Amino acid sequence: METKTQRGGLQGLIKNGLRSTKLLEWLRPASGVRWDRERLHQLIQSRLDGRKFIVVSNREPFIHRRDKSGVIQCIRPASGMATALHPIMMASGGTWVAHGAGDADREVVDAQDCVMVPPEAPGYKLRRVWVDPELEKGFYYGLSNEGLWPLCHITFTRPEFRPKDWQAYKEANRLFAEAVLEETQGERALVFIQDYHFCLLPRMLREMGGGRIICAQFWHIPWPNREVFRAFPWGEELLDGLLGNDLLGFHIHYHCQNFLDTVDRSLEARVDTDRSEIARRGHLTRVRPFPISIDFEADSLLAQSAEVQAAMERWFQRLPGLRGRKIGASIERLDYSKGIPQRIHGLEHFFEQHPEWIGKLCFVQIAVPSRDHLASYKAEQEAVDEAVDRVNDRFGTPEWQPVCLLKEHHGPVDMMALHRLADFFMVNSLHDGMNLVAKEFVASRGDERGVLILSHFTGASRELSQAVGVNPYAVEQISAAVSTALTMSPARQQRRMRLMREQVAHQNVYRWAGRLLTAMLRIEHLDDLEEENVPEETFADAA
Ligand code: F6P
Prior knowledge:
18 strands; disordered N terminus; Rossmann fold
């Protein structure tokens, strides 16, 4: 229910010069409007009206680590989520609450556990939460990554559900709730929670006194169908936690439907599928699709920079075999959901079917080690090594290796340079909520060249329909896609790339954030707007 203060906020806005027509303009869906950094900035400046803006995630956007010589380095982790949220935080100047996981993180924070980031041009506050190793084992490695990750991704990796991990998960959610409430200090705030690490946090915030908070959560991974979710032993508690949100976002409509259906069959709640809303315990949760994206303009500009040009040359020095050959590439965390062994197997099939390409194609695979304490990830590393060794032994020559496997973190400039060098780029995830690397590849190709091979089982495939689509489980489809990519005429590449670039430029990260924020603000102002007899379709959420 709307409070007096909330109403005052709206009236304050109007008093401050934002007439109600202007307000409606802001709240109207932005489909016809161009979203960019400036527009998001304006929205935040004019509409936050003194509310705090707080993002919560497990992975922090900047990690402080000591390098081999003992010097503290600040690095950006390999996380699409962190990359997407950074520009929004720069525009809002808010607070980002995250797990301080770096070995030098404690050395750079102030007495409140905060540090301004990015170090070179501080734009927002990072509040670090300390999760001790035992708790991290149960909360992050256990319940989040051995339980919920395989449950939601459906890659046929069996999830593990240990009661002690569930306890740790609850405890960690409580730690984060305390940190968020310390940051809001009872004031009006928009709290924007990320991902599957914090299913219980929204309900906890409500119960622990966060009455003046508008709470939204974005689920960065897929939401499975009801049958799959049934396997989760504490399903009711988890769903009830999520229904503490005012707004719950998924990448695509299909995941929203799965969620509504899951709740409908698991909990006592009123599920309105037409309006995509769930009422439970007197509280309403709106469930909406918000396809996440990238900062297209910034990525396009970076791709054209002298820095990236120089990095392209460095790739040839580092891997001399690339010169004079066709280049294929993939970049991702080393995760079983990404389908790396399947891809290498597909390449093996390609060389079998097309021996004329032996010696003429180099495939660069960047696989950043991730969650490597877990047995399933260790097994995946072994599977990748084994597949790469097999293909290189089988087809390689003393001067040429078909696959170059690089298991290390690369900065944005080096990754962009590899995008630009690639004749084709492969994303064949077995399942992926969105996949932002596919969009980054498209943004990097201002030359309108290069072919994207994209799994049907990524959220991105709904938007990038000009990619060459593959079923990642079908080795012959991967092999055929490589052949299609290598023989596609420049004119066809251009037509496809141009359409994909238009799509990503339009559906950029500012639109994602703008629509989410607009939806959050609308929740707070709904009663005022109804007084003005605004037709409901004015706020239709489809972009
Ligand atoms: O996008 C899903 C996600 O789990 C993010 O939450 C996360 O930052 C990213 O993948 C990388 O995973 P992790 O943070 O576990 O290394």
